[in-house]
Amino acid sequence: MWITSAAAAAFWSDESMKTPRPLPEELQDRPFTVADAAHAGVSRKRLRHRALHRLGKGIRSESPTAELPLGIRVRPFIEVNERCAASHLTAAELLVLPRRQQKGTPDMYHVIRPEGSAHLNRAHVIVHRMKLYSDEVTTVDGIPVTTPERTWLDMAETLTVDELVAMGDSCVRVPRAGIEGRDMPLCSLADLQRMIDRHKGKRGLRRAKEAIKLIRVGSDSPQETLLRLAIVRAGLPEPELNVPIIGDDGLRHHEPDLSYRKYRIGIEYEGELHGEEGQIVRDITRSENYEAVGWVEVRISKRHMLNETKPAVAKVRAALVQAGWRPGR
Length: 329
What we know:
The protein is an alpha+beta fold. It folds into 3 domains: 19-61, no CATH class; 70-175 and 184-212, no CATH class; 222-322, Endonuclease, Chain A. The protein has helices at 5-17, 34-39, 44-47, 70-79, 88-94, 148-155, 161-172, 189-198, 205-212, 222-233, 277-293, 310-322, and strands at 32-33, 53-56, 59-61, 85-86, 109-114, 125-130, 137-140, 143-146, 240-241, 258-260, 265-270, 296-301. A hairpin with a 2-residue loop joins strand 2 and strand 3 (59-61). Helix 5 (88-94) packs across helix 6 and helix 8 (189-198) packs antiparallel against helix 9.
């Protein structure tokens, strides 16, 4: 018996309307590759069901992915592309480095392929083909990602010098023992310099060379970095970073974000968390400790960083002058 084209269309339409068989648990609520599905025993017919979202060649998802963590979203795009690693802005986010927020569609992922590899043209993927050494790739939750030092150099293509210094400061800072789950910096200043020396002629190299001269160990946040840079560019002495106050009694006290031991001045940058009740109590105690050891506390908030940081610089300058500092001394 022959089936008319209209009947056939209706037949296949009815098939696609059927409630699909549930996916294996490991494929639910996340994007996955067709290879993952086949390994889990999912049939080709099930993969063709219109209830699945097609995110690109060889990638499916049962539900929207926009709210999922980046690592879960980007993993299949790395897995279907051989010899690739997450790079640039995507790597910076996976490595939890300070970065400029991505404009436009958030579901675009940066991947890097070694120079000379075949060209890729896939949905949701921005491919960078450039020189890439094996020791410039690490893993984050099993996902190949460019190392912090290589990511820093790649981001020199788009970041400003100050943004690049903030990212570099984050790379080389010594983490707080017992709090951050690691006790070693992401990389060293020498590692950053090695990237500059290795990749001659790379885009952004001049900016990276300028930034590396300004990177310091000790800054705990991008705001502290930007404050330090503003202070120095205003002609004020360069402050020390997170150095503990040693009282006249020889006891070690807290560590100001930035400080001038010679002038007994501590500078504290207060972020949004300083409005919480518990933090307010701690800030009051800290101010009392400053007074007890004979130091001056300069408190800087987000509003002081407006107008090209001029209010913040003015507060620091006033405290220095009051303590006896003069330009040229």
